[in-house]
């Protein structure tokens, strides 16, 4: 057969023999049900693990796959305005349900969503990122495809994802597709990290014998990174989802001898301390150890604090809770108690430049026990690997003496917070007054999403009632994250009213997917804080680049609404207008998406941001070390 430029080569004969040349994923379908397809298997697997809402942007390489996702009864396909927001939405969904998923097209979609996937990686969230890839026949050829950078190398996208996912699968033949898909999904759940799955566009609808049974529920074997003796600890790593979606049980193991040794040394260390404290960190979530941490706090009586990025993971209604430990910008009297303690146990901490306020924490290594998801380090002394945080905290709770000294010291020095001055009639609304009113809105039926910026600090001071959700993205800190994350979280937690606090600069990055919130009938309340710029950047290093073009934000949302769906918008400049707006949003408009634009002065910031910004600026501007 003559080779022709730009023609298709359809002359390859099928071959189904073991050990023979590949057959490009085609097999005889005479004995195979038309329902036994890759697309159906993937859809059912996503529903099975709890990713019942998949956030997508269509493209020609993923359209057939999207058909199969739509056809799955238990799955909702949520179309987003752009890939970045689809990724952020999968992140937000994973924060509520334990796993999220998004589907985009090859390269132009994949390289757009990758920023959101990197954020999920930094926050230890299992996000299944699915990409519709090139036709399987194009692999190994010299063809140049659209949606690429013009080279006949289709691995560029996958190579970009290698550093922000824990597993990558390129599915371009049906013989191995079942194994590749299940390995990718199970790895995401075991590692609590995102994975990348590329699926050739011509494969989702083709039946194959490997998909001839319903997907068998995962029962994930222990991670093989530790040597386990015969008397090991067995603990469920991922719980059954409250909505009964996740039918997966994964087991992780602690080395029994290491666990016993770590508990013995830690108990001796803490029991001889005079005023020890406990501090919860963000890795409590990935370690599935929030309950064990509370169990330890109940047993020992220590003062209990949380790191800023762990807010919402530690119950603030606990009788010994003393607030957020964030160095110089901690909640009142918390830093004094933590930093003056003679022993502190940090469970799942991340000490970066932001959480350490420019590396200015007054902590001493010799006083600290650092408990990571599978490792315990005690002061300057021994370290114990293959010890799971959940097992360690539960076992330690049985060995500690009750000691309320640190909490009693806190109670002794504590002075109740004052209230901000009430605004005079027609006086410009102040941010601290705004958050005083947001505090009154919180209950166990609400959840707070805090955008990167001054909302970090103002929301950190909110006191969360029992059951109130709270999320923000501190490690990655990508501005604009909250719009997509609010969409995803609200889609996952339909029993909660989400309250999102978003700055105007961040909103301009990702505003489009307010449209998707309306399509989904969400009831979120968005407080758009309009102060004319990137305020958090101003406090680190000011310049004209931190001033943004002002938008008519309520007019924009009204245009997006366009009479379809339930939406209510308003602008507020004074406290009395804010009170009326909140009453409307929680009363007559309680079934609507409510968008409240709050206009405040450009220099109206929290005192914590002023302090934090100056310290981070100092850390950023350190001169080079001498060579």
From TrEMBL:
It holds the Pfam family TPP_enzyme_M. It comes from the Eukaryota. Homotetramer. GO terms for biological process: aromatic amino acid family catabolic process to alcohol via Ehrlich pathway; response to decreased oxygen levels; response to stress. GO terms for molecular function: magnesium ion binding; pyruvate decarboxylase activity; thiamine pyrophosphate binding. Keywords: Decarboxylase, Lyase, Magnesium, Metal-binding, Thiamine pyrophosphate. Residues 264-380 form the Thiamine pyrophosphate enzyme central domain. It is an enzyme of class 4 (lyase). PANTHER family: PYRUVATE DECARBOXYLASE, PYRUVATE DECARBOXYLASE 2. It comes from Rhododendron simsii. This is pyruvate decarboxylase. InterPro entries: DHS-like_NAD/FAD-binding_dom, PDC/IPDC-like, THDP-binding, Thiamin_PyroP_enz_cen_dom, Thiamin_PyroP_enz_TPP-bd_dom, TPP_enzyme_TPP-bd, TPP_PDC_IPDC, TPP_PYR_PDC_IPDC-like. Residues 37-142 form the Thiamine pyrophosphate enzyme N-terminal TPP-binding domain. Residues 473-597 form the Thiamine pyrophosphate enzyme TPP-binding domain. Its cofactor is Mg(2+); thiamine diphosphate; a metal cation. It catalyses: a 2-oxocarboxylate + H(+) = an aldehyde + CO2. Mg(2+) binds at residues 504, 531, 533.
